[in-house]
Specification:
This protein has 542 residues and is of the alpha+beta class. It is built from 18 helices and 19 strands. Strands 7, 8, 9, 10, 11, 12 and 13 form a 7-stranded mixed sheet that branches.
């Protein structure tokens, strides 16, 4: 008997992962990721296109959200699976960066991942798949930019309006769609006319407010700042022309001590003296304001009742607890400086407005600051019959603004209605590559094809029939042929003004490719056990 054979090494079992941890490897991990991707895909796929469906989402507090916006749907979902979170995070990044194309990103991510999974089952290595996915996407984007894209003249207001209309769902009435598009275009054109071409600061100049009551057509564009605040005292003036404005980031009230303390008075005279001291402090602050000729004051914090009385007596309009973001917009519009110490308030820190007026909107009092020196600062006041409708209209307006903003960043549009994707499928097929590379290009082509079919299906038409007609039109050389959802037939995207910003398409395609690539590269999922609550906590909660 061999000594070497009898002395085999002993295997000592050891625990590597914490108890309760779960691990999925290779095919199982891919399957779990694909299923998670499909769940997100199924959630938003019907929200793709101009005749998409809406979703009702109920959160943990019982509040409901009704929307057909992919970004809003995903932001309201409470996702746990890591692969699903990856897709949701990519969608949030797309929404933050571009403001549109979120649904496109999610749908295309799943379609690319699904096609890659089929290729891997045929024995093609992920590296080959992703390398050719990238090469194919670069080919598509170059073709879109060089052969299909059209440069946009940002001074052509009518064209901008038509592009904005393409971003508004067809489920709304024509009158509503035109009103929302007009307001959005006017706001952006005003910014461009005033030289605000840096799109990163659009949010600083353009404010969106909402108020339910009335109709969607009551939407307003205010050249100035609208505040959902009322004047603090009924005796104060409700309208002031040629307003001299002070912005205070300090309370006009007696400062409270950081610790609780109790005052004891031996007689009533001491109480009167104490109250007089407080009133003198308030009077000194108001005298300082009035001495500079200020007739409108916005305060970020509170205003004492006695101070309100004195301000009213001096004919000064005052608003309290104004949001920090509103104070910043008021400073930008009026030229005033926000003051944190009353002694620092001086003539050079005051602002001006041609009109400050309190008006009733939807049964509530609002304050409007208009005719300001910097009239690039604007407020879009969105209206609607109820809170749900108003919220959705606000989302649509913001989406229109985002689409127009992307045109400022890259002034090119491509035909919408699936025309760009059908064009992409033809470019990929024309590559005519053989072997594994050719199979990957065909898979990428099928992903774009499935994307177009989803748009057609959401409009209630036969995807296979319409797509065949669409492909035939492109084969005849009609590169701008698209699916017109409003009429349910093949039309020319340029003639029908069905246009998408190139930047939105490009960002969505690349983000979808990157997200799908990350999912394809995963072959192991290790999920740690959930943390247990400290001992005794469970019993206390019960």
């Amino acid at each position: 008997m061999s000594v070497r054979g009898s002395s085999s090494p002993r295997v000592i079992p050891s625990i590597i992962l914490k108890e309760g941890s779960r691990r999925s490897c290779e095919k199982e991990a891919q399957l779990y990721n694909l299923l998670a991707s499909e769940v997100i895909f199924e959630t938003v796929r019907t929200a793709l296109g101009p005749l998409s469906y809406s979703k009702i989402i109920v959160d943990t507090f019982g509040d409901t959200t009704i929307t057909g916006d992919g970004a809003t749907i995903l932001s309201e979902l409470e996702v746990e699976h890591p692969a699903a979170k990856l897709i949701v995070d990519a969608a949030k990044s797309q929404n933050k960066e571009v403001g549109d194309g979120v649904t496109t990103l999610v749908v295309l991510t799943h379609l690319l991942f699904k096609e890659a999974d089929l290729l891997m089952k045929q024995g093609i290595h992920p590296s080959i798949i992703l390398e050719n996915y990238k090469a194919g996407m670069v080919r598509v984007l170059e073709a879109l930019r060089n052969e299909l894209a059209t440069r946009v003249d940002l001074k052509n207001v009518d064209l901008l309006r038509r592009i904005a209309l393409s971003a508004i769902p067809l489920s709304l009435s024509n009158e509503t769609r035109e009103k929302l598009a007009d307001i959005s275009v006017k706001a952006v054109v005003k910014l461009l006319e005033k030289g605000v071409e840096n799109t990163r600061v659009f949010d600083e100049y353009l404010k969106t407010e909402k108020k339910s009551g009335g109709t969607v057509l009551d939407i307003q564009l205010i050249e100035g700042v609208a505040l959902d605040k009322e004047i603090v005292h009924p005796a104060m003036p409700k309208r002031i022309e040629n307003a001299k404005i002070a912005l205070l980031d300090l309370p006009i009230e007696v400062k409270k001590t950081e610790i609780d303390e109790r005052l004891k008075f031996s007689d009533a005279r001491m109480i009167r003296e104490f109250l007089k001291m407080e009133q003198k402090m308030m009077s000194d602050i108001v005298d300082k304001i009035a001495g500079l000729g200020v007739n409108v004051v916005f305060v970020q914090k509170g205003i004492d009742d006695f101070a309100q009385y004195i301000l009213a007596k001096k004919g000064i309009m005052a608003l309290r607890r104004v949001k920090k973001s509103d104070m910043e917009k008021l400073a930008l519009a009026t030229g005033a400086k926000i003051v944190s110490v009353i002694d620092d308030l001086s003539e050079d820190k005051l602002g001006f407005a041609g009109l400050v007026e309190e008006r009733k909107i939807g049964g509530e009092k609002w304050t409007f600051v208009e005719k300001t020196p910097n009239n690039a600062v604007q407020t879009i006041l969105v209206r609607g019959e109820n809170d749900k409708i108003t919220d959705e209209m606000e989302r649509i307006v913001k989406n229109c603004i985002s689409v127009l903003r992307s045109l400022v960043e890259e002034p090119y549009v491509v035909p919408g209605g699936g025309a760009a994707e059908v064009f992409a499928t033809r470019k990929l097929i024309e590559a005519g590559m053989g072997g594994k590379e050719g199979l990957v290009m065909e898979a990428l082509s099928r992903a774009f094809e499935a994307y177009v079919k989803q748009i057609i299906a959401n409009a209630g038409h036969d995807p296979d029939e319409i797509f065949t007609m669409l492909r035939a039109a492109h084969a005849e050389g009609r590169k701008t042929a698209c699916f017109d959802a409003s009429e349910g037939k093949i039309s020319d995207a340029i003639e029908k003004n069905i246009l998408d910003p190139l930047r939105v398409k490009k960002t969505a395609y690349l983000s979808a490719l990157e997200t799908a690539a990350m999912l394809v590269r995963i072959d192991d999922i290790i999920m740690a056990a959930r943390m247990k609550p400290p001992k005794g906590k469970e019993g206390e909660e019960e």
